[in-house]
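[SOLVED] Need 3D model of a two-part complex

Original post:
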Amino acid sequence: MDNVRVTSNKRALFLALLILILILAATMPLYIQPYTIISLTSIFMYIILTVSWAIFSAPTRYISLASASFFGTGIYVWAILGSALPLPIVVGIGGLVSSLLALFTGLLTLRLRGMYFIIFTFGFSEFIRHSSQWWEVNISGTEGRWVVGVDHTAIYYAMFILAFLTLITAYAIRRSRFGLALQSIGQFEEAAAHAGINVTAVKIITFAISAFFMGAAGAIMATRWSYIDPSIAFSPLISFMPVLMAIFGGIGQIYGHIIGASVLTILAEVLLTEFPYYYMLLFGLILLTVILFLPHGLVGLIERWWKGRLVGKHANT
Amino acid sequence: MIATLLDITIGGLLTGGIYALTAVGLNLQYGVARVLNIAHGEFIMLGAFATYSLYTLFGINPLVSLAIAGPIVFIIGFLIHSTLFQYIRSSSESTGAFEGRSLLASFGLLFIIQNVALLSWGPEIKGYTYLAEPVNILGTIFAANRLVALLFAVAIGLAFYLFLVRTRLGKAIRAAAQDPVTAQLMGVNIHRVLGLCFGLGALMAGLAGSLISMMFEITPHMGLRYTVIALIVVVLGGLGSIPGSFIGGLILGLIGSIVTYIHPGLSMVAYYMIFILLLLVKPTGILGK
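Solution:
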């Protein structure tokens, strides 16, 4: 009985905290600097990328490096349709086109496993980058294009709403039978298939869902840059960052992904502005430290500390 | 017609030789030491810049530099493996976990090495001229340095192959590649062999870098491109197969040369196209198991 009350109390506290954060985030543009709004938008963007990457890759353990191709597709959808249609519709289309791309790649690749899957997805997004570059130079004759901009507050709200939707989706999938199916695929794929799970369908659908949010985020983010070309839109860094952020934060929990994305985005920005010449060096050292000493990410550290505190309390009484 | 054909073939073999060397290095690191080293290209860059500095500061012949830059990069690689990757290996519960963590660690290395290179050599494009006089082969003209580089690439590849096949240490490496646990039971010092493999992989990268610096311009950012090409060649030849990497490198070089002849600027697209088709049709590569 006591346990039940504790969990329901905890849940109420959690809900209150969540609502507080939501209100704070929603009213943010009223009282802070435009520069901070831009930084917050980047943080939301990386939260979306990391959480949506983890929707597919964390439970199934298929490490995808194709994020850049989905994100970049969203950017190009905005570049082509942005001047003709309103923002929410273009963002939706960006997401859908990315999902279709994910369905297509999913059908091609999901029989590959382990390292082969990783290098395939990386090769695939590089292929898209190089071929669209080649297309722009040789066929359409224009490298890069100008993009219609939108004001910062609108981008902020769009990104905020999308981040919220991504989190809800991630949470819902995790809690559903579908999420269980994903986890059983990650643990033992053959056993999952024998238990009656349509392994291929589950993997491909999840891959497409995760790509939807990446594409939508790309379409929103495109409005912030006035100029894009394939090397900006399909930058391989976008493929690597979600992986790093999820592992940095702690791959097992959604709040780990949020913490990882937020901390690394802020860290990267601070390092870049404070130490422009040693930026990569420091970033690399931090990365190595986390991999060596925090195999379960920041969340692992927090949990260890939390457990230590609990033990300490009991020791005192 | 024959002149063009010869031009394409020799041009392809020239780049292919370099690709082969870098791929053999990456294959040792992934095939035996299980580290998919994204920082592989950074060792190429280090080799190239070491050779550049030795030539411009002390006037040391780049071919002599092979014997200086190579061992330096080897030692760096060996030390990195015996500290960093050894630690990750001993603290990971499974091979899968080790592969994931070492992949990320190699990203960290990439950032660090590239930044150190930027600080030491600056961001500008560098280059020097060495053996640039033209050589005429059956009516087609090549710079002498490219032919010398090809010669050395083949010689280094052959020497390394003989080392693997003929020596005791080479046998230990092959055993470790097949089954590290059994190799250890048979008395192979697995820690040292894995460190050696990583170091030798770095050595191959360093030597390739030295050869590249004789022919092309170099920058601190040149690494990633070569890493990606090496990755494609490794998959093309078969993960874990050293002869496969060598053949794969030459094939990819030839394809690149043909595609560049048909339409310059399309070679990278073609590489990725081959890569994707290959993974879909025969992911184990030409000589893979």
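Edit: Residues 33-239 of chain A form one domain.
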